Amino acid sequence: MRAFPSRAKPRWTPLMEITKMYLYGASGHAKVVLDVVKAMGQQVEAIFDDNREKHMLHDVPVLHEWNGETPVLISIGDNATRKRIAEKLRCDFIAGVHPSAIVSSTVSIDAGTVVMQGAIIQSDSIVGKHCIINTGASIDHECRIADFVHISPHATLCGNVQVGEGTRIGAGSVVIPGVHIGKWCVIGAGSVVLHDIPDGVVVYGNPCEVKRKNLNK
Among the listed ranges 15-24, 72-81, 166-175, which one has the minimum average pLDDT value? Predict the structure, then answer.
């Protein structure tokens, strides 16, 4: 896992402080990100996407050539793709938190991360760059979430859990306190994680077991 940041103020542009913004990625995930942006009282100027057959997403124009417009929020659900785009753009990123989410004042959220409707992040947790904390997910005290992680809808991380870069915690999964999960893992939906998980594997079950290597990392 990467060295997690201290609780110093993250170097990112909060969504509520900007006057105009852009999304990168016009997928179904982008529709939810649009809802987060609108709920925070902001407006997306345009969405960039490589698919030239897309021209509108809801009421927002979809453009196909990015010319350095900033700030950007990457609205792509796949962790590896989100990382590639972030490394390609190398621009000013913003982060967004839906007003219905409950986030402790002692939580650190870094650039590019989106916290969806009804999510909970408890005291002294640290969330890295370009993460997705999805609908109704629960992250308890002092968790450490590395960059490009996706905590899927209604997944629950108990206290002091660490999740490595690029890992996806499947919908409805439960991770018991103090567990360390490696980089670029997939934790299958509905799994119960009772022990540490090494890097780069697919696990699922109750209790979960390592099934194979993650070839999509």
Answer: 15-24
Reported for 195-202, long-range contacts at CB under 8 A and 24+ positions apart, including other chains, are 199/164
Q: What gap in Å lies between CA 2 and CA 167, rounded to an integer?
A: 13
Question: d(Cα 26, Cα 123) in Å, to the nearest integer?
Answer: 33
What tokens were used for 11? Answer: 């170097």
DSSP 21-62: EEEE--SHHHHHHHHHHHHTT--EEEEE-S-TT--EETTEEE
Residues 6+ apart with CB under 8 A from 190: 170, 171, 172, 173, 204, 206
Asked whether the bond before 207 is cis by omega within 30 degrees of 0, the reply is yes
Contact of 96 with 37, CB cutoff 8 Å: yes
Residues identified as active-site? 141
Measured CA to CA, the distance from residue 90 to residue 72 in angstroms comes to 10
pTM of the complete model: 0.91
**Alpha carbon distance 214, 114 (integer Å):** 24
CA dist., res. 20 & res. 105, Å (int): 26
Q: What is the pLDDT of residues 86-145, one digit of tens each?
A: 999 988 899 999 999 999 999 999 999 999 999 999 999 999 999 999 999 999 999 999
Query: Cα–Cα distance between 189 and 24 in angstroms, integer?
Result: 27
For 102-161, the three-class secondary structure string (H helix, E strand, C coil) is: EECCCCEECCCCEECCCCEECCCCEECCCCEECCCCEECCCCEECCCCEECCCCEECCCC
